[in-house]
What we know:
The complex is a heterodimer of chains A (108) and B (389). With 108 residues, chain A is α+β, with helices and mostly antiparallel strands. In chain A, 19% of the residues lie in helices and 16% in strands. Chain A has three helices and five strands. In chain A, strands 2-3-5 form a three-stranded antiparallel sheet. Chain A has a two-stranded antiparallel sheet with strand order 1-4. The radius of gyration of chain A is 20 Å and the shape is elongated. With 389 residues, chain B is α+β, with helices and mostly antiparallel strands.
Amino acid sequence: MKLTIECLKNVLKKPFTQKYPKERPAIPSRLRGKHVYDKEKCVYCGLCARYCPSNAISVDREKKEWSVDIGKCLFCEQCAEVCPTKCLVLGTEFELAEVDKGRFVFRG
Amino acid sequence: MIDMKKNTTIPIGPQHPALIEPEYLKVSVDGETIVDVDIQLGYIHRGIERLMQDRNYVQNIFVAERMCGICSGSHTCAYSMAIENLIGDVELPPRAKYIRTIILELERLHSHLLWAGVAGYEIGIDTVFMSAWKDREYVMDLLEQISGNRVNYGMSTIGGVRRDISSDIMPQLVKVMDVVSKRADYYADVFLSDKVIRARTEGVGALSRADAEKFSAVGPVLRACGFDYDIRREGYAAYGDVEWEPVVAKKGDVQAKAIVRLGELKVAASIIKQCVSKMPKGDIRVKVAPNISENEDVARVEAPRGELFYYARSNGSDMPERVRIRTPTYSNILTLKPTLIGQQLADLPIIVAAIDPCFACTDRVALLDVNKGDKKIVDGTYFRKIERV
Lengths: 108, 389
Ligand code: SF4
Ligand code: SF4
């Protein structure tokens, strides 16, 4: 009986779910999305690569190259946490699906 | 011995609509009654413990987190505690302990609400499924605001927590807790009073006290058999500072397991509210050195499904030499056999769901010769021997 009442109440309500992607979800301020990297500030220390659990980041000190493979990334934010110059943060871009694997590599 | 000629054997799994994750239940039935069951696991072995030996202590936080999608907070917390014990003299800031407690309890809330939904679904009452999952969303939204993610929050770290809970989320936390405790009362009432739910849960899949002890059941499954046993009593994180009592039921059947879990919703909500009001100010983490000298230690956490156990051994480098994890389902799965025998085949899904199994977490040690189908029984010496390898 209690369940029937619950059922009937819900018939009169609007759907609880969001119609994504038509309806845009509210983005939480702490969302961990795609990396935002400032090449100017990077000192190529390689700490981000050393602490990345999925070995997604590669840093080449000599050639001054930095890249992250978003396809491997777990969005844990550890790289941004250890970065000494704070030139690396995780932004709020989260719709990262790609058809071509190569496009997952982001060079900043 | 079971007469195989008379009984029919029904394979359930490895892939089966009634099961959420792959496992294999070989069920022998006489008519509709289950007479024997053989549980075979190992279909989702991922080699996580080995993976941990190749990564440093910080990287392993995130490996541990990915043991389980639902208890990820418990896994990081247990792992961090094990490593803190290894180091020895890490004194966590009080605020970090409170934040850990809030995360662990929010996780228990969403896990138990998810379970209530699954239980409703297995019984065939989709209204319970949909409303429980709707209420779960309020908790998930909170977790998302606090940590940035709905799952794999990445909150615990060695020496504290990684993110603070800002004071403007606190009022919302309290508000959601009030809503959840009201809903917990409602679901408990529904599970006890609805005729259909009662018919499907009362006296179904009862686990006796003796069997619970014999098979070392943990968590809500054990507490549903009348044992007052909860790791949170040890007072890790901030559990020593707040007032709470474990929920215990007597009968050990599906209904008792439901009552324990739904009761724990209220307890969790009250723990969170107490944490919010008592929240100390200050730092949220202390710095720890990357290398850990030779040592071994353990940590235990009461995950939503029961006791979660971590063992870690260090060798002076920045990587652990060995991490061993025992998840709650590993203990609870053994209780399926005594609970299933003598039951109706149609009750199998709800009886299996009642232990709230998580097979991906459990698949770590399985000694099974698939070709011959024999199982090997191993004792502790064997494990000690292979652990050294
Ligand atoms: S840690 Fe920061 S500064 Fe160092 S290499 Fe990575 S992005 Fe550059
Ligand atoms: S967010 Fe985590 S997984 Fe992704 S690149 Fe940074 S450290 Fe690696």
